[in-house]
Amino acid sequence: MSAYPAACFLTSAHSPGQFVPDEGMEVAFAGRSNAGKSSALNAMVGRRQFARVSRTPGRTQLVNFFALDDAVPGGRRVVDLPGYGFARVPEAMQRHWRTLMEAYFSGRRALTGLVLVVDSRRGLMDYDRQMLAWAAGASCPVHILLTKADKLSRAAGARTLAEVRREFGSSAGGVQLFSALTRHGVEEARLALESLMPVPEARLATPRPAD
Question: Architecture of domain 8-196 in CATH?
Fold first, then answer.
């Protein structure tokens, strides 16, 4: 059963002018091509084909907006950003992606958090650090998913987790191991997603004064 039964695709944007209205709350998902970003998003939302999964790195070439629910005015969304760092993508396309992401991070008021997806077998790389720098510049909290943890031994996974935590300390927010295949860490990641777009507590209605 989906954790977000009302979740649905909204639109894809090739330029900032095509972004959905800047209202409500949204959490962006970013990561290197083939790091498992779409699989992670599908597992967290609880929909197999919610975000399209491809074996071809660099397939996500647009900014894809998905509605989660209407728990806050303007709604809550997740945003699948283009994958980065794949050498076979033409240089002009890579420049376009960079410009598009810079525009997104610099001017998006609805952005309340970033989920950075990192292949646990490769660890953090320069493009990941650039993404973290953009998030920091936008005062945007970050949660790091170290994906494909099922490909590592328990000891290797623990080392990778410790290395990332040691490098970023509390500045990167949460860091966790994750596997869409075995579902290891899915609930933890879902709770992190909720914490990045919190729903305000309902206020008790003030009793109406007596006439």
Answer: 3-Layer(aba) Sandwich (3.40)
